[in-house]
Amino acid sequence: xxxxxxxxxxxxxxxxxxxxxxxxxxxxxxxxxxxxxxxxxxxxxxxxxxxxxxxxxxxxxxxxxxxxxxxxxxxxxxxxxxxxxxxxxxxxxxxxxxxxxxxxxxxxxxxxxxxxxxxxxxxxxxxxxxxxxxxxxxxxxxxxxxxxxxxxxxxxxxxxxxxxxxxxxxxxxxxxxxxxxxxxxxxxxxxxxxxxxxxxxxxxxxxxxxxxxxxxxxxxxxxxxxxxxxxxxxxxxxxxxxxxxxxxxxxxxxxxxxxxxxxxxxxxxxxxxxxxxxxxxxxxxxxxxxxxxxxxxxxxxxxxxxxxxxxxxxxxxxxxxxxxxxxxxxxxxxxxxxxxxxxxxxxxxxxxxxxxxxxxxxxxxxxxxxxxxxxxxxxxxxxxxxxxxxxxxxxxxxxxxxxxxxxxxxxxxxxxxxxxxxxxxxxxxxxxxxxxxxxxxxxxxxxxxxxxxxxxxxxxxxxxxxxxxxxxxxxxxxxxxxxxxxxxxxxxxxxxxxxxxxxxxxxxxxxxxxxxxxxxxxxxxxxxxxxxxxxxxxxxxxxxxxxxxxxxxxxxxxxxxxxxxxxxxxxxxxxxxxxxxxxxxxxxxxxxxxxxxxxxxxxxxxxxxxxxxxxxxxxxxxxxxxxxxxxxxxxxxxxxxxxxxxxxxxxxxxxxxxxxxxxxxxxxxxxxxxxxxxxxxxxxxxxxxxxxxxxxxxxxxxxxxxxxxxxxxxxxxxxxxxxxxxxxxxxxxxxxxxxxxxxxxxxxxxxxxxxxxxxxxxxxxxxxxxxxxxxxxxxxxxxxxxxxxxxxxxxxxxxxxxxxxxxxxxxxxxxxxxxxxxxxxxxxxxxxxxxxxxxxxxxxxxxxxxxxxxxxxxxxxxxxxxxxxxxxxxxxxxxxxxxxxxxxxxxxxxxxxxxxxxxxxxxxxxxxxxxxxxxxxxxxxxxxxxxxx
Length: 933
Fold this sequence. Notes:
Layout: H1 3-9, H2 29-38, E1 43-47, H3 54-64, E2 71-76, H4 84-98, H5 104-111, H6 118-130, E3 136-141, H7 149-160, E4 166-172, H8 180-185, E5 189-193, H9 194-197, H10 201-211, H11 218-228, H12 232-243, H13 249-255, H14 260-273, H15 277-286, E6 292-293, H16 294-301, H17 306-315, E7 320-322, E8 329-332, H18 334-347, H19 349-365, H20 369-378, H21 382-390, H22 403-414, H23 417-421, H24 424-434, H25 440-460, H26 468-488, H27 497-507, H28 513-529, H29 535-551, H30 555-571, H31 575-589, H32 600-613, H33 617-634, H34 637-654, H35 657-671, H36 676-698, H37 701-713, H38 720-736, H39 740-757, H40 760-776, H41 780-794, H42 801-804, H43 808-821, H44 828-836, H45 871-881, H46 886-893, H47 897-911, H48 916-926
Helix pairs in contact: 4-5, 6-7, 12-14, 16-17, 16-19, 18-19, 19-20, 20-21, 22-24, 24-25, 24-26, 25-26, 26-27, 26-28, 27-28, 28-29, 29-30, 30-31, 30-32, 31-32, 32-33, 32-34, 33-34, 34-35, 34-36, 35-36, 36-37, 36-38, 37-38, 38-39, 38-40, 39-40, 40-41, 41-43, 43-44, 45-47, 46-47
């Protein structure tokens, strides 16, 4: 079963039903008026403990409204909805039910693999809602069951930007972790709480008389109200006890305290005790279910009259709530279900596992695998749960928010080790799901077990056998070895990954493109970070990984691999090729709705550094922030740390030291969650040198010296690449301490290592540090000779910040070099570099020769749009205002017609328009262009 299909099947239709009102409902006009008033606000919050009738009130009020005024989108939430993607899938589906077709594309996009960032979905939802004027009420019932912070964050963003005709209604037992104070202060929030929901004395009399058929004197009614504190569930249970005819009202009241929990327990026992034994048995056995229908109840209870019994329970007002008008799906009142389960545990604890097992098999037969697995765990049927999990496709890349992986990680953590270790498929899944946080020894243990189990199994099969089972096990063994190679590639002895790659390739068929792509990516990492040390081979394997992913029809995977490869073009000193590849990857990352695949974040992060190097600092920051926005959706530690470190690098070049500090704090906070090897790997890639540069730029030499001393005293685990970057950072500390000779001694072997690996970007950095060291030693000719090497290598690729960020001492050396070289003719590159230093009166920017992803030269104006237009989109909008055709725009902006069409699609979506004329009118209204344009 495909992951997308599996996930869509988990969207239970019954959760969208507005619960049916009871057959007899007392009028509560005062509460209806409160709800009606709440519709004038963005958020209507019903917050009260269980049993105060929140859902019943909302249901009755909604059923009293005129049809479609407003449209009501209802979602009954449960604990399984704590996956942010699952939650928003329900929201989109509920809205699409009310406005058919409006949200279908967004829903399909969210259910795709990989899904877009939640922020993009929320923005698109709001823009879609802006395109309609129909009033909508979105009801989220039982919101207290949601604990996932990302859901609350994204919902808060949704509330902040809701159009006036959409109202969000939350029913919850506890106040949600939303910015309620801010919403209250801005006049966005209307609250209905426990005090308002308590039954008045008049409502107590009306409820007991009209619903329960019980007439009390005024004094008794007042006592009931006081003892139950207006608690609607307590009233219902009290009335049911009186209906049994075995209790005198005054005597019963004398026995009750005002404690709601006690009232509930006592009256439930009295009510249940008066039911037929068959009914008590049915209630107890079905209490394990969150939702009930006749077929499911028959399967769990082994009876065949569940439909009739459910109907009788509903008619008897016995805390059974119908979820649909056809009376097919029901649920018990939550507190009633809790008591039933407690009673079941007390009276028949040995039956609980059996009931869960029956429920699990029913759900599995009906393709509801989420519920099937959950009930399997509740039954402690570990082997059955493992079998169900084994039917799921395994993730292969760093996407921790994907629907399958979110569930997979939770399930795997719940399985006993002996079950996991017995199945190689699960061992591999565990390693893939947990590699960011689990210790390396544990990861190796899972993979060792998988490999040993597969080898032992293969030995039992005849060597000449070409059976399907043998082929399956060989492929799985190849997959295990491939993943082992990936993990090995960024460890101290990373070069050991290469023979693992060859062993894995020998086990795979030529058309195993996805696993072969993963192997190529492991080879890329190995040739960069280990003693294998060959950046050109690394780039070759990175491009190969991308092509294999494309051959497998996995564009997201291709975007990830090729975007990562942009990093290594930069390290090789091939900036223009890095920019060209980044543009290609961006085109590949564009989805049908115009949004970008989150995997493009790696490529954007790398290209942001190229723009920084070309001194396009505004464009670099814009791209870096865009990359971080996408990275935050993935929750993947390594890419997130790379993004944070890249932002710190950009802020350093911009001189914004406080922001650089914040970026490094985020970098360290993420690293605390990762395992040691992953943390060291990401630190060496981009952060080690820049952290030291930040301290030195601030004048905090003591902190840099302390870091150097700690490094020298430690064991210094990490890859050869990590050691190289540490040595460069140490050399910077030595230069700051006026110890140039020691710095040169540190840099010599590092230069040899970087040169052998072909990492010309790092070679140039080392040359610049050597030039500064020779200058401090007053060896001017040697300093200028080394500096000339760096200039000669930097000019074709338009390096700027590599020179400028080294500060005024290097500016003096460059000025001397220019004076000497001007004897041979003009020196435009040296002129540009010297003009860019902040001590000069001029500043210059060098535009990349191979085109740009982000337009430079003008800043995006303040825009009253939730998703502002980019600079390039503003360019296109300006041409649009001038009446230019798509062909004209393409020619003037030097882009393709297809790119123009994509920009227009984005502009229309962000502005909530459907035509050029509407876009121009909207732009004028928003102040994006002047009225005379």
